[in-house]
């Protein structure tokens, strides 16, 4: 979690996908969750959420929250 701060843009790989969120692996021990409602300002893009974030896709994401207490 060192170096990951709110507002930073980080690169990661989609490791799991659900109907309303994806998990993005930033490193072997750090991952983040992207909720469908946080993925775009364009409502039309929300209906094709899973098409935009398949497992294995490399993505860039802005950090909204850091939970250092979780392990």
Notable features of this structure?
71 residues; mainly beta; four-stranded antiparallel beta sheet; 2 helices; 38% strand; globular
What does this structure look like?
This protein has helices at residues 43-46, 49-52, and strands at residues 9-17, 21-27, 30-35, 58-62. With 71 residues, it is mainly beta. A hairpin with a 2-residue loop joins β2 (21-27) and β3 (30-35).
Biggest sheet features: 4 strands, antiparallel
Helix/strand-derived class?
Answer: mainly beta
| Overall geometric form | globular
How much is the average pLDDT? 87
The H/E string reads EEEHHE
The total count of helices amounts to 2
Radius of gyration: 12 Å
Helix content: 10-25%
Describe how the helices and strands are arranged.
Elements: E1 9-17, E2 21-27, E3 30-35, H1 43-46, H2 49-52, E4 58-62
Antiparallel strand pairs: 1-2, 1-4, 2-3
Outline of this structure?
This protein is mostly beta strands. The chain has helices spanning 43-46, 49-52, and strands at residues 9-17, 21-27, 30-35, 58-62.
């Amino acid at each position: 979690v060192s170096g990951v701060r709110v507002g930073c843009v980080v690169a990661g790989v989609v490791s799991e996908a659900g109907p309303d969120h994806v998990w993005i692996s930033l490193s072997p021990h750090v991952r983040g969750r992207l909720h469908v409602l946080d993925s775009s300002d364009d409502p039309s893009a929300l209906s094709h959420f899973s098409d935009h974030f398949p497992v294995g896709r490399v993505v860039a994401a802005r950090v909204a929250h850091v939970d250092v207490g979780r392990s």
